[in-house]
Amino acid sequence: MEFTVEKTKTPKARPTDDSKLGFGHIFTDHMFMMDWDQENGWHDAKILPFQDVPLSPAANCLHYSQEVFEGLKAYRTADGVVQLFRPEENFKRMNTSCDRICMPKIDVDFCVKALKALVELDAEWVPKTYGASLYIRPFMIATERNLGAHTSTDYKFFIIMSPSGAYYEGGLAPVKIYVETNFVRAVRGGTGHVKTGGNYAASMKAQEVAEEQGYSQVLWLDAIHHRYVGEVGAMNVMFVLGDEVVTPELDGTILPGITRKSALEVLRHKGYKVTERQLDIEEVVEAYKNGQLKEAFGTGTAAVISPIGELKYKDLVMRIHDEKIGPISQMLYDTMTGIQWGKIEDPFGWVVPVCKLDD
Ligand code: PLP
Ligand code: COI
């Protein structure tokens, strides 16, 4: 399949101050879009000016949340190279999500090609400042005009892009996380391992309650025993217990994060002791009481590496590493962002260059 390119005739003013970008509310000049129906499969692929899209009020996605999405970033190096980080991983994960939500799969190579063309067209929108980047949101929605609660016959796939700064207002400053003991996010056999909007809608109540108490996000526990650590709202989680880095195993209830996978590869590459296993919150508490809870941090595309400075579980407030970033979190942040922004060599072959800008 090929795609057409229609350039905007009215380019927008680009942001001039990267420190004021915030997250996810400014959009570039162009977007990618294609359609799927039973007769034609994927067709009508195009890059076009960023715009609103007409949608029937009866579209399936609006009622039954048949939708999936992804999140990745484009970075600008000091030499002006614009590059992506493991984009094929995102499109492969999207296909896992599509399978679970009964949506048509995409061609990973075609989508990477289309994404590269889109990023190249809007390359000037990739922020220059270290730490700021172009957040990329591929997503797919069910568009059939039908209120029947069944899988749709029609779909649309999009890629939109947003120059963004840090996801958390404090940047690399440690975040405060609330261990959720009432609400639950996912259960085995459900949809916790895929990236679909319904998971996020279902988690907003807990997020709101946590925010009211001054916490950034919640740490989810398993839905049956309210005991085993899962993940945080928009990131996976890792704990340094003594000399071991422990992260919950991929048990079908948490998202297989690409940052998680990459951080584990970096840690193993550098010789750290790393374990993916079931982790009881009581073990974290025990380690805290024994002085063995050395560090805790989240990993995610938007959140990068986010140190956790405070973890509240029931009445216990655990202050971790003096509420300062710890050495392993710092090493991971420096390595991941170093590779992404081209400051250090990429021994893993993760970055995918798109184009080079002159300045
Ligand atoms: N878990 C959830 C629920 C997320 O929304 C995200 C963000 O995408 C992650 C984990 C981290 O995944 P990744 O590292 O692929 O961005
Ligand atoms: C990402 O990190 O890409 C995410 O999708 C998190 C999102 C919920 C903001």
TrEMBL record:
Reactions performed catalytically: L-leucine + 2-oxoglutarate = 4-methyl-2-oxopentanoate + L-glutamate; L-valine + 2-oxoglutarate = 3-methyl-2-oxobutanoate + L-glutamate; L-isoleucine + 2-oxoglutarate = (S)-3-methyl-2-oxopentanoate + L-glutamate
Regions annotated as coiled coil: none
Listed Pfam families: Aminotran_4 (PF01063)
Keywords assigned: Amino-acid biosynthesis, Aminotransferase, Branched-chain amino acid biosynthesis, Pyridoxal phosphate, Transferase
Signal peptide: none
Matching InterPro entries: Aminotrans_IV (IPR001544), Aminotransferase-like (IPR036038), B_amino_transII (IPR005786), BCAT-like_C (IPR043132), BCAT-like_N (IPR043131), BCAT_family (IPR033939)
Transmembrane intervals: none
GO process annotations (BP): amino acid biosynthetic process; branched-chain amino acid biosynthetic process
GO molecular function terms noted in the UniProt entry: branched-chain-amino-acid transaminase activity
The protein's Enzyme Commission number: 2.6.1.42
Modification N6-(pyridoxal phosphate)lysine, positions: K195
Pathway, per record: Amino-acid biosynthesis; L-valine biosynthesis; L-valine from pyruvate: step 4/4; Amino-acid biosynthesis; L-isoleucine biosynthesis; L-isoleucine from 2-oxobutanoate: step 4/4; Amino-acid biosynthesis; L-leucine biosynthesis; L-leucine from 3-methyl-2-oxobutanoate: step 4/4
Gene3D superfamilies: 3.30.470.10, D-amino Acid Aminotransferase, subunit A, domain 2
Cofactor(s) it depends on: pyridoxal 5'-phosphate
Stated family: Belongs to the class-IV pyridoxal-phosphate-dependent aminotransferase family.
PANTHER family: BRANCHED-CHAIN-AMINO-ACID AMINOTRANSFERASE (PTHR11825:SF44), SUBGROUP IIII AMINOTRANSFERASE (PTHR11825)
Designated name of the protein: branched-chain-amino-acid transaminase
